[in-house]
Amino acid sequence: MNNIPYQPFKMAITRVFDAPRELVFKVWTESDHFAKWWGPKGFSLEVTKMEARPGGMFLGCQTSPDGSHVMWGKFAYQEVIAPEKVVFIQSFSDEKGNTIRASFNADWPLEIMNIITLEENEGKTTLTLKGGPLNASAEEQASYEGMAPMLQQGLEGMFDQLADYLASQK
User: Fold this and answer.
1) Domains with residue ranges and CATH for the chain
2) Which segments of the protein form a coiled coil according to its record (predicted)?
């Protein structure tokens, strides 16, 4: 993560999962697991590529339940330290992995830096996700901040899906 210019983190969420840290790390970094819980509720995720290592990339396509909305996204992994940390830059993309603007807002930041840390205590894992715009203009930062409550709600819903998925893996 050295030499990556980013603004101070605008979002921080902490959640305790009833699962060992190694399993939580695994479901964040292996495509077979990741595809079963990542994304908005009801959406399906097709993982085209997932190389969870520094310099690696995730590329995937989310589809709405009725098939009317299709969204590609990618992660550029910066740091992956098993089983304690995953750092990635998240962007909307086309099917080839080229970064594109979000379809819902022309002022949405092109890149979002995310840092996930995992700490285990007595068989449970505390996951902390910090995120915020990377190399964003003032307009992009304002757009991100304006949507922060909706973003937080979406992440909480996704973490509910993660908790359910982890429970199914025991």
Assistant:
1) 11-168 (3.30.530.20)
2) none
